[in-house]
Inverse folding.
């Protein structure tokens, strides 16, 4: 029987990114969600040859795309609802390490962040309000 969840995980990517950038943003914001929510990590996988593989999250992640304005609107809605966000900004594509990443974000006000992706996990109803009008990534 499939698991049901009271929460929803949504990642929103800006639609004008190169494919490698979308994949990079997805990996980083997803890692933030998992890092903050260890309970969503399942058990190790094992094949019939007894090889062990790392566990994955047990909850699906829905990935949406948005233009710059719609991404900003989703960000604002999340902030208004106190949804904890993972963010990725355009500047982070050119930084070399975690310290530089955090410094690049700390250098900007919320309004000045050049957002290219956000990720969130919250109650389904709340996340649905944040991402209202966005389409799933093709």
């Amino acid at each position: 029987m499939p698991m049901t969840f009271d929460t929803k995980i949504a990642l929103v990517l800006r639609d004008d990114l190169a494919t490698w950038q979308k994949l990079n943003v997805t990996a980083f914001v997803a890692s933030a969600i998992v890092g903050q929510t260890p309970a969503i990590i399942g058990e190790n996988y094992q094949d019939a040859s007894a090889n062990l593989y790392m566990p994955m999250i047990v909850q699906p992640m829905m990935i949406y795309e948005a233009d710059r304005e719609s991404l900003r609107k989703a960000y604002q809605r999340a902030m208004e609802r106190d949804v904890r966000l993972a963010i990725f900004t355009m500047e982070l594509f050119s930084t070399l390490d975690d310290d530089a990443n955090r410094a690049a974000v700390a250098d900007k006000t919320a309004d000045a962040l050049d957002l290219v992706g956000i990720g969130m996990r919250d109650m389904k109803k709340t996340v649905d309000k944040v991402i209202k009008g966005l389409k799933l990534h093709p």
